[in-house]
Amino acid sequence: MDILSVIGAIFGVGAIAGGLLTALSARVVSQYEKGLVFRFGRVVGIREPGLRMLIPFVDRMRKISTQIVTMPVPAQDGITRDNVTVRVDAVVYFRVIDPVCAVVEVQNYLFAVGQVAQTSLRSIIGKSDLDSLLSNREELNKGLEIMIDSPALGWGIHIDRVEIKDVSIPDSLKRSMSRQAEAERERRARVISAEGELQASKMLAKAGAQMAESPASLQLRLLETVVQVAAEKNSTLVLPFPVELLRFLESGTSSRDTAADTAADSTPAAADTTPEITPTEPTPALDRGNTPTAEQDGIRP
């Protein structure tokens, strides 16, 4: 009985020791992780997701997440190419594709990617002008992605996407831009109005030429206008006065005035038709002393 008790105790101790060793050597790697195994400080392999066994007190595992990491880039102050002070922030999406390089080649890959992103963002601000930052975001995002991805590839990291979140400009510049936009909209409105007036004048000229060829169409248009005005149930009806009638009256008045002026010019003046009376000289009285008599003439009775 004593021997059996000792053997049982030995097996019990062995089972406990085996359980402890198993607990110390067993590691669970999640589906989104990679297990990097170090043996005496040297990388000996990468463990896939699942239950993995290690040599106790010899192997050490470091788990690296392969999920996409979303890293916000702090807002950076800079001066654009056209000398405008702006404040720009962005966000970087990346993932680890080579766990060995991410752990061995760089001390802290998260901090390294953040610093590269800030530096690249400041460089993009200095190379771009304000209009590009506000309206040409896609090309700037691609350029920023290339600048960050170049050093990150050596660290076993792939940059999936980089986006500029917000561009802050001074308030004085915002007011200037709003005034500029308002002036531009007013200019476009005036141009559109002028173009509309031009097109309307051309169409009215064509309509007037066509109505001039057919006077009845003008009368029909007048009747249509009257019908449209009367359909609105107005108490006052305004009828347009035809311009042709005015021209007819004006031409009649002008012809009468011309005829009167012609008649006045052809009639002789009243002073010329009056007969002229010339005064006659008075007959001088006969002087008896000077009158010759019959005797003096040699005539005898």
How would you characterize the overall build of this protein?
It is a single chain. With 301 residues, this protein is α+β, with helices and mostly antiparallel strands. The chain contains nine helices and eight strands. Helix 3 crosses helix 5 (137-152). It starts with a helix and ends in a 28-residue tail after the last helix. A hairpin with a 2-residue loop joins strand 2 (33-39) and strand 3. The strands form three sheets. Strands 3-2-5 form a three-stranded antiparallel sheet. Among the domains are: 19-65, no CATH class; 69-169, Band 7 domain (Tetrahydropterin Synthase, Chain A, 2-Layer Sandwich); 178-211.
| Residues in helix, % | 40-55%
Kindly report the spatial arrangement of strands forming the biggest sheet: 3-2-5
* CATH classification class of the domain at 69-169: Alpha Beta
The unreliable regions are: 268-301
Give the ordered list of helices and strands.
HEEEEEEEHHHHEHHHH
Radius of gyration: 60 Å
Q: Describe the largest sheet.
A: 3 strands, antiparallel
The CATH superfamily of the domain at 69-169 appears as: Band 7 domain
Stated plainly, the CATH topology of the domain at 69-169 is called Tetrahydropterin Synthase, Chain A
| Mean residue pLDDT | 78
The helix/strand class is alpha+beta
Characterize the quaternary organization of these chains. single chain
Please state the second-level CATH architecture of the domain at 69-169. 2-Layer Sandwich
